[in-house]
Write a structure and sequence with these properties.
Oligomer: single chain
Largest sheet: 7 strands, mixed
Structural class: mainly beta
Distance between the termini: 40 Å
Number of helices: 0
Strand content: over 45%
Length: 115
């Protein structure tokens, strides 16, 4: 089993920034992909950003240019720097890890963008 612990959510005004962090622990062999999903009220969970163990990144179009994903393979951590936040970014953000074809999820952290 892989355990994921998230931190860094909160309330921020539009245009502000937040940084989410996720640390993986437990039975870690070879994590292939780390990243984040989010789920807004009344909507389905959607992918936000992913990074492979080789450093390749993918972002959903709505966050490109505003969010930056980074990963520390030695520490098994992934961070999402979110800038220029918009009210539509409000959601519960879930850390995601894919190891040997098996997905793991964090418990979620709330991000609220509101004035």
């Amino acid at each position: 089993q892989v355990q994921l612990v998230e931190s860094g959510g909160g309330l921020v005004q539009p245009g502000g920034s937040l940084r989410l962090s996720c640390a993986a622990s437990g039975s870690i062999f070879r994590i292939n992909v780390m990243g984040w999903y989010r789920q807004a009220p009344g909507k389905q969970r959607e992918p936000v950003a992913f990074i492979t163990n080789g450093g390749g990144t993918n972002y959903v179009d709505s966050v490109k240019g505003r969010f930056t994903l980074s990963r520390d393979n030695a520490k098994n951590t992934v961070c999402l720097q979110m800038n220029s936040l918009k009210p539509e970014d409000t959601a519960v953000y879930y850390c995601y890890v894919l190891q040997e074809g098996r997905p793991y999820w964090g418990q979620g952290t709330q991000v609220t963008v509101s004035s």
